Amino acid sequence: MFKKNLEKLRAYDPGPSVDRIKKKYGLKRIVKLDSNENVYGASPNVRKAITQDALLPELYPDCQNTELRYELSRRLGVKEDRFLFGAGLDEMIVLISRAFLDSDSSMIMAWPTFYEYYCHAQIEGATTKKIPCDKNGKHDWQAMLEAIDETTKVIWICNPNNPTGTYLAKSELDQFIQAVPKHVLIVIDEAYIDFVTAKDFPNGLDYLATNENVLVLRTFSKSYGLASFRIGYAIGSLPVVEEIGKVRPPFNNPRLSQVAALAALKDNCFKDACVLKNNEVLSVITAFLDKKGISYYGTQANFIYIKVAEPKQVALYCKKKGFLINPFQDGVRVTIGKMDDMKCFLQILEQAIFETSAEPSK
Ligand SMILES: *Cc1c(COP(=O)(O)O)cnc(C)c1O
């Protein structure tokens, strides 16, 4: 009855709601450190803009995102016709997969990286090559190059990478892009670029002028704190943007999402303040982990990947204490929260590691 490709997939499991968790463990408060949302909220401009906006519920939204497109174009120095908008980057990943992948093709991604790349390649019936990150949690870009063959249509570079927080430096990405054949689309997912402080971090937009096969992804969900509005965008060459545009549902960004994104964009102060606080808290976290001898990957994002022996048990322990974090294969990914919350969390994490390392693994 169903598409055969769905057999190996599971629907996204958000887990029990915050209210459920509170009730179950008798908690007064839950600190969400599991989705890399902006813990400082969104710009006050956003609230103002959406409450003042005429709602016009009966009209379809502007399918071109005209005002937002104009403002982004001006700020980023990219022509207006090079943008493509999606209901978050989640939808952009669906659209890219839809436009490029089928059962005769393959794509290359790092592992671990953002799961949605894998999921939508599966749905399209494409072959997926997962190239393990190196021992520092970085994309092994040389191995990714070696994996290219005549079936390769798309390569995903998540920079900084979710969940490891690591990044490819400019010199590395330069060499990588140079070596990838021009018929392969290189998608650079820069969901976390605003948090980056490393001086040698490459801006994906710099590759667009000379590489028609590069597509850069950005979102309002993380640094701008608009995850609930579902709005993100891709920037690429005309041929690429036009082809993907064919599979895009025309009215995929509600009017209020466009209004919210525009208001957020016009308040750089808010975003910059969040990034500053993020870095302050990060230095407290890394100082603590260093002191305790707990290993982690160096991060350029608003989350950190901490190595633990029993990720699932550590995450469960923290959940019972009111902190939601995400377990992965050999560590946990933790959103960098507010200072007070994180000081509290670090104590609990230390206990969790101590308690769970004494138990046999399950
Ligand atoms: C959060 C995230 C996205 C998706 O963000 P949207 O909310 O759908 O815009 C895409 N890529 C990465 C790497 C992410 O972490």
From TrEMBL:
Pathway: Amino-acid biosynthesis; L-histidine biosynthesis; L-histidine from 5-phospho-alpha-D-ribose 1-diphosphate: step 7/9
Catalytic activity, reaction form: L-histidinol phosphate + 2-oxoglutarate = 3-(imidazol-4-yl)-2-oxopropyl phosphate + L-glutamate
Origin: domain of life: Bacteria
Pfam families in alphabetical order: Aminotran_1_2
Modified sites of kind N6-(pyridoxal phosphate)lysine: 222
InterPro entries hit by this protein: Aminotrans_II_pyridoxalP_BS, Aminotransferase_I/II_large, HisP_aminotrans, HistidinolP_aminotransfase, PyrdxlP-dep_Trfase, PyrdxlP-dep_Trfase_major, PyrdxlP-dep_Trfase_small
Tagged with keyword Cytoplasm: no
E.C. code: 2.6.1.9
Keywords: Amino-acid biosynthesis, Aminotransferase, Histidine biosynthesis, Pyridoxal phosphate, Transferase
Gene Ontology MF annotations: histidinol-phosphate transaminase activity
Entry cofactors: pyridoxal 5'-phosphate
Domain Aminotransferase class I/classII large: 29-335
Assembly, per entry: Homodimer.
NCBIfam families linked: hisC
Annotated family: Belongs to the class-II pyridoxal-phosphate-dependent aminotransferase family. Histidinol-phosphate aminotransferase subfamily.
PANTHER family (UniProt xref): HISTIDINOL-PHOSPHATE AMINOTRANSFERASE, HISTIDINOL-PHOSPHATE AMINOTRANSFERASE 2
Record-given protein name: Histidinol-phosphate aminotransferase
